[in-house]
Specification:
Distance between the termini: 99 Å
Oligomer: single chain
CATH architecture of the largest domain: 3-layer Sandwich
Number of helices: 1
Strand order of the largest sheet: 2-3-4-9
CATH superfamily of the largest domain: Rieske [2Fe-2S] iron-sulphur domain
CATH topology of the largest domain: Rieske Iron-sulfur Protein
CATH class of the largest domain: Mainly Beta
Order of helices and strands: HEEEEEEEEEEE
Helix content: 10-25%
Number of strands: 11
Strand content: 25-35%
Radius of gyration: 32 Å
């Protein structure tokens, strides 16, 4: 057939073949799976703890802790020490090798059972191989008398300082 410039060319309707449709369907499914995998991965990486160790822990009311007392909080893995100047939350983990350090009432000190490191009421090393004092957590007083400890932020220290205490 010869080309006729005076005849209007017919518009051709584009159709999609079965192979092209399946290709687009597989591409869409792949994008959907990749998006879901990305969202799941991001959710996995996001910190989940909002209470308990790794988050804020309610230790109790101010009146629950007599002066010069040591109270172990199992959920938060810390000790609340009420000194005359205020409160101190000591991480129960020994800075030497990570052992759980118990408070020994009879000795009036923290005594690491693994390597015999000793700590006084403020968590300062008094004997043994520990290289530094016990770490501590920040404390906030909320609702006038509730003691909250933020266990997501352990703080290393080289000694005891009055600024480490939370005063009521």
């Amino acid at each position: 057939m010869a080309y006729r410039p005076d005849k209007k060319e017919e518009k051709t309707k584009k159709t999609i073949t079965r192979g092209q449709f399946l290709g687009l369907a597989w591409l869409g499914a792949g994008v959907l799976v990749a998006g879901e995998a990305t969202l799941i991965g991001l959710k996995y990486l996001k910190p989940q703890a909002t209470s308990g160790f790794g988050g804020k822990v309610l230790a109790g009311k101010v009146s629950d802790f007599p002066v010069n007392s040591v109270t172990h909080n199992i959920t938060g893995r810390f000790y609340i020490v009420h000194l005359e100047g205020g409160f101190l939350a000591l991480y129960q983990r020994c800075p030497h090798l990570g052992c759980a350090v118990p408070w020994v009432e009879a000795e009036n000190q923290f005594h690491c059972p693994c390597h015999a490191s000793l700590y006084n009421l403020e968590g300062v090393v008094t004997g043994g191989p520990a290289p530094r004092p016990m770490d501590f957590f920040p404390i906030t007083i909320e609702n006038v008398d509730e003691i909250w400890v933020d266990t997501s932020k352990p703080t290393q220290r080289s000694g005891f300082d009055q600024s480490q205490l939370t005063v009521i």
